[in-house]
Amino acid sequence: MPGLKEYRKNLNLTQEELSIKSGISLRTIQRVESGIDPKGYTLKALAKALEIDELGLLTNKPTNDRLNLELINYINLSTLIVVFLPIICFSVPLIITFTKKQFNKITKQIISIQMIWSLIMITIYLIGNIINLGALGRDVFIGFLYVLILLNIILVVRNSIELMRNKRLYIKLKSSII
Fold first, then answer.
1. CB-CB contact of 69 with 33 (8 Å)
2. Which residues contact 95 (CB under 8 A, 6 or more apart)?
């Protein structure tokens, strides 16, 4: 099956290494890579060794169900680089997600959170510039924007810690925008 071979090569594993990691014989791995569909224990063991969904092995092309947590964490932390520029704040993770082909539930959540944060920041900024706040009001308004930026930094760092510990986001939306 071409999917298994691609998954194996993406992990830089030889057939022998996959055999050891999965507990499946080398000959069985060769058969699966040649086109025989894995079943039962073989399917479960190979999926577990490759850290993918069993369904991914039954399709002829690999899916991006395998989570590269280091890359996802990098995508999350990339928002910190441009935290003062709301539009770029979600653009950078979006570009990394597409170029590295890590478009999954977690990266969708990260990008959705940053899109919402960007919309809030832009809206508040525009409202603050339309309304005449006076000198004191403008200082309070700018302070409020800095608090929102600080909250975004805390959100990104907290999600990063949770990704490394528990392989999920600590702060997430009920549904993603994208």
1. no
2. none
